[in-house]
Every structure is written in structure tokens, then in C-alpha cells.
Amino acid sequence: MYDVVIIGAGVTGSASARELSRYSLNICVIDKEEDVCAGTSKANSAIVHSGIDAAPGTLMAELNVKGNEMMEAWSKELDFAFKRNGSLILCFSEDDRPNLEALFSHAEANGVPGCRIIEKEELHQMEPNVSDEAIAAIYCPTGGIVCPFGMNIAMAENAYTNGVEFRFNTAVRNITKTDKGWKLTTSNGDIFTKVVVNAAGVNADIFHNMVSADKINITPRRGEYCLLDKTAGGIVSNTIFQLPGKYGKGILVTPTVHGNILIGPTANDHDNREATNTTQDGLANVISAASRSVPNVPVRQVITSFSGNRAHEDNHEFIIKELEDAPFFVDAAGIESPGLTSAPAIGVKVAGIVAGLLKPEKNPDFNGTRKGILDPKSLSEEDYAKLIAEKPAYGNIICRCEMITEGEIIDAVTRPLGAKSLDGVKRRTRAGMGRCQAGFCSPRTMEIISRELDMSQLEITKNGGKSNMVVGYTKKSLEEA
After folding, report:
1. Burial (CB count <10 Å: 0-12, 13-18, 19+), residue 125
2. Is the same domain home to 263 and 395?
3. Residues near 129 by Cβ (< 8 Å), separated by ≥ 6?
4. Quick one: DSSP state of residue 110?
5. Residues 242/268/466/426 CA torsion (nearest 10 deg)
6. Does pTM top 0.85 for this prediction?
7. CATH code at position 253
């Protein structure tokens, strides 16, 4: 029997696992996908929100601001990309100024430091490419950008090296109470635990409702995005928002930590929790709305589009607590935007709740630091030459678009919780994220995965399940002829 089972290996589950690994507990994270960061956590705006948007007095506002404050320290401890680039929330007419001022009042109420309203002249000095229609903006200097894959993977790896077990391709079918805790019926057999942490994203209401009479409802809210080539980088330096509407913060234009430009997302409620397809209308809306903020967004340089489902709870609030009618079942549900920003604070809160239930000892061997995959591009020419002399694989470029080496892919595959699929490698190294979108590097990446994991290329998938990249041979071998 485990002490704690966490359902979900996204940012919420992985942050909770990392914080719980500070204790001497037998912990397991289970996920229905083949890797960490395979759900909502991989398809978002990659924004570290300042905390001005959330309604004052909500848990969402509290954890947004706390998570923002923690992000820099976490990025250094866990070695993932983060930059505090600032954000701007645009106002397009004097009629909307009262709404801008009302939103600005949230800054003081939520404890967001440094925010101020700037007028048109200063706005255009800061961001020359912003629309002339914009008459004012709220400037939030604590806003930032992050690599969501790197952050999620870093938290999971650190949890793993501190003793947390991860089980993938394990879908929860049912949860029932036992004399000693909980039984989770899964696609890979029964799992028993004293405490359940429900961090299942868009499916969190399903598991909550299995054990509680106080039902909740989560609606998948599809957000569609377009990613522009790095040649479009520099068009904006801050993250550019529009005044929030009924369905959230609207379409943004933002740089990424890797030098691209990202525009989106839409916000469309639907009833298919697994549907992450893009739509013609949705992407047209993204481009149109983004062009209102930044008229010369070079949309011809879009290299890919994608969508993700936000876990929109009916009350638009985080639910993080032990359930009154289901003791030792802890919800971390309704974690939609700003869930990525809030993740460090959510992890601390969840760990505090569980520690209060189990009263564990501290883990004397806990190590809160982790080193990410070495990026040779960060080295001097002299140090890079030394690296290649010691490890020649770092001199072999596999992904030309992103200049990713064989050495980096080997590290991604063989490190703790290493990649087993093409998307797993992509999220860890960016191999396949460039202009050609894996058109050229996939075969070589598959060869490396096959060699390092001693598996047939017929077994290698794009992202788990039945997404096999190779399904047979185009020609029979001479022996078969």
C-alpha cells in the first residue's frame, strides 16, 4: 500500500509530488498517458501571470501571486527556462477605461507589485508594434514567460530522484473506499493507498464525483494557438493581453523563452475531454484578434498550430482541499489558467494538506535541485570544442532547425524519467519544434531512441498509445523473398 497516490502527471501533480518528496512517504504518480506533461500542461500560453486578473479574495488569486513569487527560485533550483519579461493589458477606447481601472484595482487587492497604468505615448515607446488604437494599458512588471515542458519535466524528475514512483499508461477506472484507505481500479490492476491526490485536470470532476456526494462539474474549454517561426521574434518583448472578457484574458501576443512568437488562445466550451484538434474558425479568430493588438503580426510565418483543453470548473475557482465526506481524498481540481503560474504554490499547499493528514517525518535525503539537459549552444566555442572531444555525439546535429545534437537526445532518453517517444524527446530537447516540424529529424531521432532503449522502431510512437511511427516494411527482405 502506498501512502499517497497522485492522479495526474501534469504541472499540478508533478509539483505536488516534488513537494511531497520532502517527506519520508511512499508516493506514486499515475497517469493514463505515456509520459509526464502529456495533457493540458503541454498546450498552454507558457505565461507566468502577474496575478492581476484573478478575482480578489479567491484561492486562484492567492496562489497565482504566490506561484509567481516562487517561480524564479524554482527555475534556478530545477534548471528550467524562465524570464520575467513583463506584461501589458491593452485598452482600446475611452469607453473601456473604467474597465481598465477596475482591473487595475485588483493589483493592490491581490498584492501584485509594481503595476501601473501607462498612457499611449509610453505604451508605444515600450512596444512600437502595438496597435495605434490602444490608448492605454496596465503594465505588470512581474509577468513572465516559461517553458511549460521544461518546468513540468523538471518537477517530475526531481520528485523521481527523491523516491517518487511514476506509473504511465495507467488509467483510473474506479475509486472505492477501503478499511485502510482507497482502492484505485486501473487499466493495470488495483492500486491501494492511504491518501489520494486528485490532480487529473479535465478529468478531475470524474474522480471527485466517484467519492463525494457534493458534485462538481468541469467543462473542457478549448484554446487554440498559432506558433510563429523564430524569424518573427522581436515583434514584441512584453506579453500583450487585451482587456479580459467573459471567457478569460482573450487573445495574447507573446514572445516565448525560446525566441518564437505565440498567439492565442481561443476559449470555446465543448463536451469532448480528449478533443485537442484545431479548427478553421478558431485559428482565423486567433489571427484576427492578435492582429488587433499587433497589426503587423507576420502570420505567414506560422510554423504550427495546436490546441489544449482548460479544466474550467463551474465556479471558476481552484478546489484544493480534503473532501469533507471523503476523508484522505484531496482535490487539486479546477486548475485552469493561471494554473501553470500557480503550480509551485499549489504543490506546497497540497503537500501541507497531506502532511497534516499523515504526520510524516522529513525525508533526510531530499535534494531540491536538478540539472537539466545540457544545451551546447550555451557554451563558449572553447568549451563546446572540449565537450565534443570528450563526447563526440554533441558534435552531431540531428535537428537542424533547432540545432539539437545527438548528445542532447541521448541525455533526454537515458536520464531519470527519460523520453520513450518522439514527442517525449521533443518536449525535453526541442528536436522537431522548429520550422520543419520534425520533417527531417524524426528518422534519426527514432534511430537513437531504438538504440538507447534497445527497442524496435516498430514500437516507437509519436506520443504513446497507437501513434506508432512505423507500421511495417515497404519491401520484403532478401531472406523473405
Report:
1. exposed
2. no
3. 235, 236, 294, 295, 296
4. H
5. 0
6. yes
7. 3.30.9.10
Report CA 412 to chain centroid distance, whole Å. Answer: 18
How many independent structural domains does the chain possess?
Answer: 2
All three cell numbers of 161, joined, read: 530522484
Query: What residues act catalytically?
Result: 49
3-state class (DSSP) for residue 31: coil
Number of H helices, E strands in the chain: 12, 22
398's enclosing H/E stretch is strand 397-399
257 within domain boundaries: yes
Segments forming the whole domain that contains residue 248: 84-144+219-312
**φ, ψ dihedrals at 109, nearest 5°:** -60, -35
- Residue 310: which H helix or E strand, with range? strand 302-313
Closest CA to 337 of 42, 35, 44, 31: 44
Cα 241 to Cα 292: distance, rounded to the nearest angstrom: 11
The SS3 of residue 90 is strand
**Of 312, 327, 355, which residue constitutes the final position of a domain?**
312
Q: Are 222 and 285 in contact (CB under 8 A)?
A: no
With respect to residue 166, please indicate whether it lies within any of the assigned structural domains: no
- Same-domain status, 393 and 279: no
Q: CA-CA distance, 418 to 97, in Å (whole number)?
A: 50
Q: Which residues neighbour 108 within 8 Å (Cβ) at sequence distance 6 or greater? A: none
Angle at 229 between CA 259 and CA 76, to 5 degrees: 25
Reported as a single tens digit per residue, the pLDDT across 36-84 is 999 989 999 999 999 999 999 999 999 999 999 999 999 999 999 999 9
Same domain, 282 and 401: no
Q: What's the CA gap between 142 and 386, in Å, rounded?
A: 38
Instruction: Give the model confidence (pLDDT) of 199-247 as tens digits.
Output: 999 999 999 999 999 999 999 999 999 999 999 999 999 999 999 865 5
Which residues touch 47 (CB under 8 Å, ≥6 apart)?
Answer: 87, 143, 144, 145, 146, 239, 252, 254, 337, 338, 340, 341
